[in-house]
Each structure stands twice: as structure tokens, then as C-alpha cells.
Amino acid sequence: MNDTRAKAYAARFGKVLDYIEDHLGEALSTEHLSQVAHFSKFHFHRQFAEHIGTSLARYILLLRLRRASHQLAFDPHAKIIDIALEAGFENPESFSRAFRNTFGQSPSGFRRQPEWASWHERYRFRLPERKHIVNVEIVHFETTRVAALEHRGPAERVNDSVARFIAWRKESGLSPKLLSRSFGIAYDNPDTTDPDQFRFDICGEERAGLPPNPQGVVSKTIPGGRCARVRHLGTHARIGESIYPLYRDWLPDSGEELRDFPLYFHYINLLPDTPENELITDIYLPLK
Question: What pLDDT shows up at residue 133?
Fold first, then answer.
């Protein structure tokens, strides 16, 4: 298959993957999804498994369970029966069985102590890169004081640090629902950094000073200045699809030089209150 045909083939699968993410709460039949991609319904399930590395049914199940996992871990008030129904299961028993078979933990056990490292292993697909044109704006970012929890170690364990930060946020009253903006500072690229050396700060805007706390949250500053800003729509798992074009395509042609501060994110909305396909994240690349 030549390069042009390969890209067109991958684009058809990208269209299907986008459709699945946007319609997870609906019935997703092989016949209908094959029509979305303009493939034969008699061969689509085999084509999907070969291209993505897992069956269509399992892929859909895993995406539904991913949403349920975030609700279990980060929304302690959500009832398991409601999470099960929202994930498309008829009852909590079938949901619990599927969850345990997939992750090796019951939903309640995962809620108490999620095993994020093994959880991430279930989401290693051969996903095609869904290329799109990024719209870059040059903006001025105002200097912002943040409370930061410094995650150090494998990217697969970031959610453990997120849970600690949420616990601190609840105690401090700096909830994102109370107009405290949420940020992430990405010192390293998880694709190219040794897992033990990976650094990422989980941050919330703060204005009143930061008292000592058992979670290890410290005060930092995101410096003001010129930035290239790109808006990423959808799951954080695919945020690289908005980052790489910024470095690979836009920056070399822009004539801009980078400032000595890492890439950072402003999370406009957050899981689990927002479905993954509706997440909005602004990516900031500091410029001189």
C-alpha cells in the first residue's frame, strides 16, 4: 500500500474512532460503524482488529470502562449503580464482572485503591495518528500564582498524584468549581523520558497564600509573557495530536524562539464531570 492510500485508510479509521468517542452512550453496532468508515460490514470487525490491535467490541467496552474508572476514582459521591448504567450495563452485577475481568479489581476495590499502572496497560492500542490543522494564537499570559503538587515518576502514576491534589483542594476550599483555574506543567515528554525521571506539576490557581499541608502541595508561579496557544478538544490521552504539530510544523515556520519555561496546560473543564470527548484544554508554549 502506497503512502497516500495508507493515509486515507488510516483517516477512515480515525473517523470511526472519533464517532465512537462522541457516541459512547449510544448503541454502536458493527453495521453502523462500518458505514461511518465506508467499509463492508462483513469484513469491518476483522479490519478493525488488525488495524487497532483489539476487537471492536472490546475497544468500545474499554472506552466505556475508562469513563467509569474516572468516576469511581474521582467522584466518591457517584453511586456504582449509576456509573454502571451510564456505562451501558443493565445492572451493577454485569458491570462489576466486566470491570473485574478487565482490570483485576472490583469497582469498589478500584475506588478504594486504584491500580493505575496496570490500568494503563489495557489502553495500549495501535491508534492511527489523527492529524488535524492546529489553530495557533499568539497571546499574553498573565503571571499566575499556583498551588502545585509535584509528580515525579512514571506518567502512569499521575492519577495517584491527582487524587492527592484533589484531597488537598477539598480541604483548602480551592475547588475548580469556585473559579480556581486548573493547570498542568509538563517538564518532560512521557514518550521520550525515562519513567523514573518524568516530571509533571498538577496545579490550581491560588491567591491567598499556601499553608503547610500533608499532601506536599507547594507554591509556584507560572510566569507571564507571550505564548503560542492551541486549543485541544477531546480526551487528554490524545493531547499529543495537538502538541506535536505545534513543535513540528508551526514553530519552525513561525520564526519564533522559545522562552525558558516548560509547556503548560490550562484545563477549561475536568473529568469526571465532563465526558472525555467534551474536554477542552488550552496548550501554552512560552515564547520570547
Answer: 77
